What does this fold into?
Amino acid sequence: MIGDRFTLAGFLFRGLWLLWHRAWFAGLAVLAVDIVIAAAMALTGQVGFFYLLSFGLALIVGFEGQQWRVASRLAKGDHLLDRVEAADSEEALLRAAMKQSAGHQQGSPPPLPPRRHLAVNAAPDDPGEYIGLVPSGRQQ
It folds into this structure.
C-alpha cells in the first residue's frame, strides 16, 4: 500500500529514498540531477540559485515520489487493485476490504485470473479466414 501524499523522507533524502524503495530509474535520475546541481554550484560559486534549484528538486520528490514508486511497481508487474481515500493505512485497508466484500455480495462475479498468452496458428488453413487488413507472406 502506497499513500498518495507528501513524504518528508523523500523531501530530505531524495534519490536515496527512491533507491531505498526500489524506484531505480527515478532514484538514479534524481541523484544525477543532484550531482549536476552540486557540480554547477561548485564551479560557478552561485550558491543561492543552486540551493533554490536543490530545494525545488526536493519539493518535487517530496510531492511526486510516491507516484514514481507506484509507476515503478507497476512496471515490475505488480497490479493496482484499488484506490481508496483514507486518513491512514489501517483505514485504507478497512475501506478496501469493505469495498471488495460489497462487490461480491451484490452478485458480481469474482475477478478474472490474469490472461495467459496462447499459441495461435500463424498460417490459417483457409486464406479467406481473416477479416480486415492482415499482412500476408506474399511479396508483390
Q: What stands out?
A: The chain has a mean pLDDT of 81. The longest helix spans residues 47-75. The helical segments are 8-20, 24-44, 47-75, 89-105. The two ends are 55 Å apart (CA to CA).
